[in-house]
Each structure stands twice: as structure tokens, then as C-alpha cells.
Design goal:
Blueprint lengths: L24 H7 L11 H4 L2 H10 L3 E4 L2 E3 L7 H6 L10 E2 L1 H9 L7 E5 L12 E5 L7 E4 L2 E4 L1 H11 L2 H15 L3 H9 L7 H17 L12
Parallel strand pairs: 4-5
Antiparallel strand pairs: 1-2, 3-4, 6-7
Helix pairs in contact: 5-6, 5-7, 6-7, 6-8, 6-9, 8-9
Length: about 230
């Protein structure tokens, strides 16, 4: 009769823990490193312009502007809108005007992106879809959104009132009040510090008319802005 001890049974090793690495298909799949999906989706991410257009048309993607979209679960925040302009905004330049209003408040996106180059910064080279202009900017008049510099809501409103036709800027200013809490008194104070600025008299008339309209409206009765 044998006096040896019977060998002890061992429990099978969990999948993927053996010396040869994972063997089960599920373990193999889990071992593959997949790069994170981009927040902003462009035609190159989905196989080209035709596929991109089909995905937007079907609702699988939501267009931000042009050939930039996001998934339906991604909120269209100011940071997302600003990031969609990054390829048009060189370093040290700032999105301004109607483009900045779109970033902040989701107002209609202009076909051309207005880019401000502050004093001492080279004018950006010509590029389709970009309209550069030079202007002095205070540090407090610029915000960083989505990795892109954008004029603040108040500075944006000041530029709109000074430089744009009131028929175009008026509805956008109303939208900035309603959607972004634009402080018209702060805009007027900023204008008073720049009494010689181009368009200052017109801007005062625009701001005064808008302030009077808002004061005359009953609480909660101001109609939404009529935007094209």
C-alpha cells in the first residue's frame, strides 16, 4: 500500500491571469487600449464629408458650426463653441464681435469669424473664414474658453454697440441680456472710459434704447429676441 500523500487539487486560475496573458475573447477585448473619442467630431473622424453629413442629417451628430459637430449627449456650451473655432484663432489673438456673441450666447453663428489681434500682436495672415481686426484689449476683457481667448460678454456687447449696425446688433444684445445676464450698466461704464472710441455716440444711443426697453417691459414680459 502506498504511503504517499495524494496531490492537492488546485482551483483554475481566473481568465487573463495565467503567465501567457489573456486567452478568452472578452479578456482580449478588455486588453485593447482604445483612444478616447474626440469631443469635437470632424469629417476625418467618421470617414469623410459624405459620412459626416449623413450623421448630422440622421441626428447621430449635432452640428456646432461648419464641419464641426458633437454627439447628441454633449451639451453645446460656450467652451465647446469656442473650441470649434480654435483652428481659426492664432495664439494671442481673441475671438470678438458677433463671433464672441455666438460663443457666449448661442446667437446665430456668422459665416466669418472675427479675430482681434491686440496692440503689439502681428495681424493674422489671410485665411478663408477669418476676419482680423486690431483693437486694444484689457486683460479683464478677455476670457479663456475651450482653450481659446474670447472677449468677455461685456466687452463683446461694447464692440457690437460701437461697430455694428443697430438693426443687427440690437437683437444680439437682447439675447446676451436674456441668456448671459449681460449688465448694461457695466457696458456703459466701460464706454464712458473710452469716450473717443469709434462709434461711441451710436453705442450710447443703442445702450440707452435697450435699457429703456428693458425697464418698460413688465417683469418676465420682455419678449425673446428675434434672431435670424
Amino acid at each position: 500500500m502506498s504511503t504517499g500523500t495524494a496531490p492537492r487539487a488546485h482551483a483554475p486560475a481566473p481568465p487573463g491571469t495565467g503567465p501567457a496573458g489573456p486567452h478568452h475573447p472578452a479578456d482580449l477585448a478588455m486588453a485593447v487600449r482604445v483612444p478616447p473619442a474626440p469631443e469635437l467630431v470632424r469629417p476625418a473622424h467618421v470617414g469623410g464629408a459624405v459620412a459626416f453629413a449623413d450623421l448630422v442629417r440622421s441626428g447621430a451628430l449635432v452640428r456646432v458650426r461648419g464641419d464641426v459637430a458633437v454627439r447628441p449627449t454633449t451639451p453645446l456650451t460656450p467652451a465647446v463653441r469656442a473650441a470649434s473655432l480654435a483652428h481659426l484663432v492664432p495664439e494671442r489673438t481673441v475671438v470678438g464681435g458677433l463671433s464672441a456673441a455666438w460663443v457666449h450666447g448661442g446667437t446665430p453663428a456668422p459665416s466669418t469669424v472675427e479675430v482681434i489681434h491686440p496692440l503689439g500682436v502681428h495681424r493674422p495672415p489671410p485665411l478663408p473664414g477669418r476676419a482680423p481686426r486690431q483693437s486694444a484689449l484689457l486683460r479683464t476683457e478677455v476670457a479663456l474658453l475651450g482653450g481659446v481667448l474670447v472677449t468677455t460678454v461685456e466687452r463683446t456687447a461694447l464692440d457690437l454697440a460701437c461697430l455694428h449696425d443697430p438693426r443687427a446688433s440690437g437683437p444680439v444684445l437682447v439675447a446676451l441680456v436674456a441668456r448671459c445676464g449681460l449688465d448694461l450698466d457695466a457696458v456703459r461704464d466701460a464706454l464712458d472710459l473710452r469716450s473717443r472710441r469709434t462709434g461711441a455716440p451710436r453705442a450710447r444711443r443703442v445702450l440707452d434704447a435697450l435699457a429703456g426697453r428693458l425697464r418698460a417691459a413688465p417683469a418676465g414680459g420682455e419678449p425673446g429676441p428675434r434672431l435670424p
